[in-house]
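Run log, item B.
One chain of 87 residues. Sequence copied directly from the ordering sheet:
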Amino acid sequence: METQSDSNLTDSNLSKIASGETWNYEATVAKVETIIRKIETGELELAEVFDQFSAAVEYLHQCEYFLDQRQQQMDLLIETLNNDSDF
């Protein structure tokens, strides 16, 4: 089942994350941490908790996608190094 977060990841967010030009992993993690702090301290109204939780999940999906892309790049580099050492 595709969620709103999943559908957002197939849009322009993926190209932003892939290029790394306008998206920053550390800044996104900081946004999640801020949301968590606000939820835990009770700073938000109940309706806002749900909205912010949804945003945090979206940010975490973006982070996961970013890390998956970087892992694939690292795997490719390692494979290339291993193939080069065979010669």
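Observations after the first pass:
- The two ends are 47 Å apart (CA to CA).
- Confidence is low (pLDDT under 50) at residues 1-7.
Flagged for discussion on Thursday.
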